[in-house]
């Protein structure tokens, strides 16, 4: 059986080979660091060339290689990761996350046993709505020696990409969101991709104990990891973020008090979304898809994101991406109360917060430093943060210098003239002071460092907030009639630019 398959495979390659040389079907040639050989791709014999940057294949018969994905109905504006020039097709090695020798084997045989049928290249394809899905390209060849040589060469290149993680620390929240199948999702959709990419993962489940994450981080040598991953919802992400950043400041010997300059963490933070709203993941990658998030982690795709810190009576409280007081804070409070309702907990919390007994204004005395006129982004400039945002790219190069200047300004004391009896007015304290103040009754006070896109707000709760421009957006909702406040909330649910 095995001999028959090997003989037929070699004959198929030889018949299609224009050289007429039997050895050309089973031997790969190498010159200048490149490899070339004859493989069968999608039933067509092709000359395949491997360099340190890409793999290219061309039909030996000279027939055209068509882009099959272009024949399908295009619903996505994303371009294919493959490159076509009519007669050849190529794939960049940086878009490959795994490669292995493919074998035909029986069910009771191990993965390394069986007949070699070729080399399997694992990459991804972009489907509708920017979802990333696995795609496997099989380069058929019966020679195990040749396939092993090619696999070894490609793996050597893949291992040379420094941004790709090799070992990660993963925190799993098994009860995140509305699903109770998070463990199954982790086992079926996350682990296979990580293992295929040869990423070692150390997984710990998040318990109800508030200090479990901090203790887990303290007990592990974080220097042995390349990334910290959170599989859960926004609450789990906030807890891991708070614990990790606080531990980073402690190790650096920095006292966390108002106006301090934080030490930047060494490891990036990755998120696999399984929550209800997934504000952070939607804001960063545009979609809360588990497989897409895992692919971004595998390829080491990162993006800087601003965070903020809160204090209570000059005592450090926590790190967070967004902060809300009033109506938004009440929703978060009631959501925890209605956890047993599953997917309906957000709706129940929303309705509870809108009742006449709960929807009320809060007297606030708000002091803030407005962004300078020269700032590149403004919450009313109508510029949303998208892929390749020029504002965030330019701002990320000057993060340290800008943070130092902002924190220096924030150390200035408040002017006593801030105690004004005028309600809901903006007061310039002094000509020298950067601080501004407003007093009045507000239904909601919110600080955003990310736009907070979600199913309930497709354009985001603050849709012109940038991820890494170094500024926060302060959103104040005055005390208005209930019907006007409801109209304001409903506008978040559409995709029109009406807010």
Concise structural overview:
The protein has 499 residues and is α+β, with helices and mostly antiparallel strands. The protein contains twelve helices and 20 strands. The relative contact order is 0.08.
Describe the structure.
- The protein is an alpha+beta fold and 499 residues long.
- Helices cover 28% and strands 25% of the residues.
- It contains 12 helices and 20 strands.
- Strands 1, 2, 3, 4, 5, 6, 7, 8 and 9 form a 9-stranded antiparallel β-sheet that branches. Strands 16, 17, 18, 19 and 20 form a 5-stranded antiparallel β-sheet that branches.
- α3 (182-196) runs parallel beside α7, α4 (212-219) crosses α5 (234-251) and α8 (327-337) packs across α9.
- The longest helix is centred in the middle third of the chain and has 18 residues, at 234-251.
- It is elongated, with a radius of gyration of 28 Å.
**Shape label:** elongated
Helix content: 25-40%
Q: Give the rounded overall mean pLDDT.
A: 82
Main beta sheet, described?
9 strands, antiparallel
Counted by DSSP, the helix tally is 12
Q: Structural class, from helix and strand content?
A: alpha+beta
Euclidean distance between termini CA atoms: 69 Å
Q: How many extended strands?
A: 20
How much of the sequence lies in strands comes to: 25-35%
Spans of at least 5 consecutive residues whose pLDDT stays below 50 are 1-32, 69-77, 400-427
Cα-atom Rg, whole angstroms? 28 Å
């Amino acid at each position: 059986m095995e001999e028959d398959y090997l003989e037929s495979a070699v004959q198929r390659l030889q018949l299609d080979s224009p050289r007429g040389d039997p050895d050309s079907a089973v031997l790969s040639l190498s010159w200048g660091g490149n490899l070339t050989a004859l493989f069968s791709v999608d039933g067509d014999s092709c000359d395949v060339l491997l360099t340190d940057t890409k793999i290219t294949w061309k039909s030996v018969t000279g027939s055209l290689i068509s882009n099959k994905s272009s024949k399908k109905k295009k619903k996505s504006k994303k371009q294919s990761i493959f490159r076509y020039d009519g007669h050849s097709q190529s794939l960049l090695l940086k878009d490959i996350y795994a490669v292995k020798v493919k074998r035909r084997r029986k069910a009771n045989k191990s993965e390394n046993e069986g007949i070699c049928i070729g080399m399997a290249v694992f990459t991804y394809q972009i489907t509708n709505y920017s979802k990333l899905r696995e795609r496997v390209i099989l380069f058929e060849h019966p020679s195990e020696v040749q396939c092993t040589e090619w696999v070894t060469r490609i793996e050597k290149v893949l291992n040379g990409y420094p941004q790709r993680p090799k070992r990660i620390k993963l925190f799993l929240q098994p009860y995140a969101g509305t699903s109770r199948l998070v463990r199954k999702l982790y086992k079926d959709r996350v682990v296979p991709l990580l293992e295929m990419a040869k990423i070692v993962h150390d997984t710990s489940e998040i318990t109800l104990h508030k200090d479990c994450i901090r203790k887990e981080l303290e007990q592990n040598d974080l220097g042995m990891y390349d990334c910290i991953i959170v599989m859960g919802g926004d609450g789990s992400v906030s807890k891991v973020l708070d614990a990790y950043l606080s531990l980073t400041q402690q190790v650096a010997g920095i006292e966390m008090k108002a106006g301090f300059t934080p030490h930047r963490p060494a490891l990036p933070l990755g998120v696999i979304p399984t929550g209800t709203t997934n504000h952070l993941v939607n804001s960063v990658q545009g979609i809360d898809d588990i497989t897409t998030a895992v692919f971004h982690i595998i390829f080491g795709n990162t993006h800087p994101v601003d965070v903020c810190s809160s204090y209570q009576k000059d005592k450090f409280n926590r790190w967070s991406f967004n902060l809300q007081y009033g109506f938004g804070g009440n929703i978060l409070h009631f959501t925890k109360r209605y956890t047993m309702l599953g997917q309906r907990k957000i709706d129940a919390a929303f309705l509870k917060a809108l009742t006449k007994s709960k929807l009320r204004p809060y007297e606030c005395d708000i002091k803030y430093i407005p962004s300078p006129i020269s700032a590149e982004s403004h919450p009313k400039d109508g510029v949303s943060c998208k892929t390749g945002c020029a504002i965030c790219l330019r701002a990320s190069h000057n993060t340290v210098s800008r943070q130092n200047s902002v924190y220096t300004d924030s150390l200035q004391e408040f002017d006593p003239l801030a105690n004004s009896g005028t309600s809901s007015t903006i007061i310039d304290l002094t000509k020298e002071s950067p601080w501004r103040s407003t007093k009045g009754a507000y239904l909601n006070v919110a600080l955003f460092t990310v736009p907070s896109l979600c199913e309930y707000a497709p354009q985001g709760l603050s849709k012109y907030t940038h991820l890494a421009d170094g500024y926060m957006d302060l959103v104040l909702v005055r005390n208005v009639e209930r019907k006007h406040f409801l109209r304001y909330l409903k506008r978040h649910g559409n995709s029109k630019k009406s807010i």
